């Protein structure tokens, strides 16, 4: 499945060359025929995250303070970990900032 | 300078302080005069009542003196009055609104200046720090410099300084006095504290934040939208801005956008950024708006359907501990794993070694861009995260030095900004067969204080 992944708010620093936008091909999880957010998170952790994975995921989910957006909509409104992704979806992960 | 000079200085200070008080009183008098004019008595009507009724029925209304603005206000705000969306009604609502800006740093000073210029009725600025804004105010509280700038740009509004750090103990009584609150603070603890306080008191919170070259903006507690806790029930483990640096323009951009959101909430014009979040990436000049962020959460402990968080709970809540609770501890913390005494030297001891001219190697483990700002002469930079991969080559280079200076003195020293990373580095070396590496206690921060007062302080 073709997806566009974007990382911001500092999360891009966990990826190779701090690249913010990734156009990727994500295979369905074993035994399923669709890609869910849960599957995407473990795929990202295994394939894109180069350092400090604990700054991105905690357990099955994203760590506190990370917003995940599917097509500009909060992933929790789309079903959270069970949200099913569709071809060409844009998934954005952004870390919250607190400086002023 | 003699006693006469000191006396002159004291008098000058007294004059400056009296002038400031007079300006404050003048501005309050002008404010109340303007209020009188806004709600003042109408002149006698020259329009026959029967005609007035007929015109009213047509939807055509005679000018109401009470709806007008003072000539001063019209002159000052003419550009925004000319906006059909904003107009006189917008200006009236704005001049009756009161806004509290919490934090007078990069964000807060931009927000406050624009709010003063556009004519909010009263503007409070709360900040506990003493740092420089403008050179003339070095050493004075930030709020003094920020409020002086606001009064200078618009003397017709009320400006209040709250020179204190807003905490759960003192926040309720201050926040209560205002209609709208601006979060321009710089810590996770203060962000939770302010959001909880605003949720308890039902005040809209215009939240801006920046780090490095990025910024975020959203509006909490407004029109049934979420609070900070609805979005982030648990505190994040994130970086602090003083370690990451900031380009002043970035909080300037976000601060201006915060002022805009305040104006929209105060005047009920437009569509405030509630339930949405704007992200700004300065490096690529991109704004991105998440159009549907988490809605108000029914299970939110502070603003949900069964909130069990009272004002008393709020005042007792330890926000500092709460914000620390999920701090990531992936880095080996030196305090848990102390180095032996013989692997540590103080700045003064190192200074003596340096002055003696003995051969040694000083390795600076800060990031490259820190090292480029300032460094100790002859020190060599290997950023901490590159240390492991460079160990073998370091060993080869050091074997030559060790041969020359065998004896009591350890030829290898590590320094970092505060003396934390240097301890981590020494641990790494000790684990890899370099038992003689030492760290310099307190790092460059202590170096600047104890050994070299001329060292450029950038932190």
From TrEMBL, chain A:
It is found in: Cytoplasm. The keyword Cytoplasm applies. It comes from the Eukaryota. Acts as a sulfur carrier required for 2-thiolation of mcm(5)S(2)U at tRNA wobble positions of cytosolic tRNA(Lys), tRNA(Glu) and tRNA(Gln). Serves as sulfur donor in tRNA 2-thiolation reaction by being thiocarboxylated (-COSH) at its C-terminus by MOCS3. The sulfur is then transferred to tRNA to form 2-thiolation of mcm(5)S(2)U. Also acts as a ubiquitin-like protein (UBL) that is covalently conjugated via an isopeptide bond to lysine residues of target proteins. Pathway: tRNA modification; 5-methoxycarbonylmethyl-2-thiouridine-tRNA biosynthesis. The keyword tRNA processing applies. Keywords: Cytoplasm, Isopeptide bond, tRNA processing, Ubl conjugation pathway. Gene3D superfamilies: 3.10.20.30. There is a cross-link at residue 100 (Glycyl lysine isopeptide (Gly-Lys) (interchain with K-? in acceptor proteins)). The modification 1-thioglycine is found at residue 100. C-terminal thiocarboxylation occurs in 2 steps, it is first acyl-adenylated (-COAMP) via the hesA/moeB/thiF part of the MOCS3/UBA4 homolog, then thiocarboxylated (-COSH) via the rhodanese domain of the MOCS3/UBA4 homolog. It comes from Dichanthelium oligosanthes. Belongs to the URM1 family. One of its GO terms (biological process) is tRNA wobble uridine modification. GO terms for cellular component: cytosol. HAMAP family: Urm1 (MF_03048). This is Ubiquitin-related modifier 1 homolog. InterPro entries: Beta-grasp_dom_sf, Mopterin_synth/thiamin_S_b, Urm1.
UniProtKB/TrEMBL annotation, chain B:
Residues 356-456 form the Rhodanese domain. GO terms for biological process: tRNA processing. It comes from the Eukaryota. Keywords: ATP-binding, Coiled coil, Cytoplasm, Metal-binding, Multifunctional enzyme, Nucleotide-binding, Nucleotidyltransferase, Transferase, tRNA processing, Zinc. Residues 8-35 form a coiled coil. SUPFAM superfamilies: Activating enzymes of the ubiquitin-like proteins. It is found in: Cytoplasm, Cytosol. Gene3D superfamilies: NAD(P)-binding Rossmann-like Domain (3.40.50.720), Rhodanese-like domain (3.40.250.10). GO terms for molecular function: ATP binding; metal ion binding; nucleotidyltransferase activity; thiosulfate-cyanide sulfurtransferase activity; URM1 activating enzyme activity. InterPro entries: Rhodanese-like_dom, Rhodanese-like_dom_sf, ThiF/MoeB/HesA, ThiF_NAD_FAD-bd, Ubiquitin-activating_enz. GO terms for cellular component: cytosol. This is Adenylyltransferase and sulfurtransferase MOCS3. It comes from Dichanthelium oligosanthes.
């Amino acid at each position: 499945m073709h997806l566009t992944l974007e990382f911001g708010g500092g999360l891009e620093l966990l990826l190779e060359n701090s690249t913010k936008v990734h156009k990727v091909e994500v295979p369905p999880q074993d035994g399923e025929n669709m890609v869910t957010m849960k599957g995407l998170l473990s795929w990202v952790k295994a394939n894109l995250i180069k350092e400090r994975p604990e700054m991105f995921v905690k357990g099955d989910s994203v760590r506190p303070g990370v917003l995940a957006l599917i097509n500009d909509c909060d992933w929790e409104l789309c079903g959270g970990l069970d949200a099913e992704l569709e071809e060409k979806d844009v998934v954005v992960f952004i870390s919250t900032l607190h400086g002023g | 300078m003699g006693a006469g000079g000191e006396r002159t200085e004291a008098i000058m200070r007294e004059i400056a302080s009296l002038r400031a008080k007079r300006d404050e009183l003048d501005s309050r008098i002008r404010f109340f005069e303007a209020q009188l004019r806004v709600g003042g008595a109408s002149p006698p009507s020259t329009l026959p009542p029967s005609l007035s009724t007929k015109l009213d029925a047509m939807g055509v209304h005679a000018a109401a003196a009470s709806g007008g603005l003072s000539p001063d206000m019209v002159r000052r705000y003419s550009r925004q009055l000319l906006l059909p969306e904003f107009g006189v009604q917008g200006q009236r609502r704005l001049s009756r609104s009161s806004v509290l800006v919490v934090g007078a740093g990069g964000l807060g000073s931009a927000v406050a200046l624009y709010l003063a210029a556009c004519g909010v009725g009263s503007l409070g600025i709360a900040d506990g720090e003493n740092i420089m804004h403008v050179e003339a105010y070095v050493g004075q509280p930030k709020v003094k410099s920020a409020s002086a700038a606001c009064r200078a740009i618009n003397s017709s509004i009320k400006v209040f300084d709250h020179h204190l750090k807003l905490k759960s103990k003192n926040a309720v009584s201050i926040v209560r006095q205002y209609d709208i609150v601006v979060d321009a603070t710089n810590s996770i603890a203060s962000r939770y504290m302010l959001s909880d306080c605003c949720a308890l008191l039902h005040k809209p919170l215009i939240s801006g934040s920046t780090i490095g070259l990025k910024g975020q903006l959203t509006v909490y507690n407004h029109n049934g939208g979420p609070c900070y806790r609805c979005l982030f029930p648990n505190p994040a483990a994130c970086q602090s801005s003083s370690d990451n640096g900031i380009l002043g323009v970035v909080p300037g951009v976000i601060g201006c956008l915060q002022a805009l959101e305040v104006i929209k909430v105060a005047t009920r014009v437009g569509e405030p950024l509630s339930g949405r979040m704007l992200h700004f990436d300065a490096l690529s000049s991109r704004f991105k708006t998440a159009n549907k962020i988490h809605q108000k959460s029914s299970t939110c402990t502070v603003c949900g359907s069964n909130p069990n968080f009272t004002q008393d709970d709020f005042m007792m809540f330890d926000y500092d501990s709460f914000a620390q609770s999920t701090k990531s501890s992936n880095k080996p913390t030196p305090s848990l794993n102390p180095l032996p005494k013989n692997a540590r030297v103080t700045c003064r001891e190192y200074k003596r070694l340096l002055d003696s001219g003995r051969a040694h190697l000083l390795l600076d483990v800060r990031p490259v861009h820190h090292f480029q700002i300032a460094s100790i002469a002859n020190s060599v930079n290997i950023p901490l995260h590159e240390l492991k991969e460079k160990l073998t080559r370091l060993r080869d280079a050091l074997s030559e030095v060790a041969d020359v200076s065998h004896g009591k003195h350890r030829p290898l020293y590590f320094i970092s900004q505060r003396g934390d990373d240097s301890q981590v580095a020494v641990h790494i070396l000790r684990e890899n067969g370099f038992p003689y590496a030492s760290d310099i206690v307190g790092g460059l921060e202590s170096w600047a204080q104890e050994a070299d007062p001329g060292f450029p302080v950038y932190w």
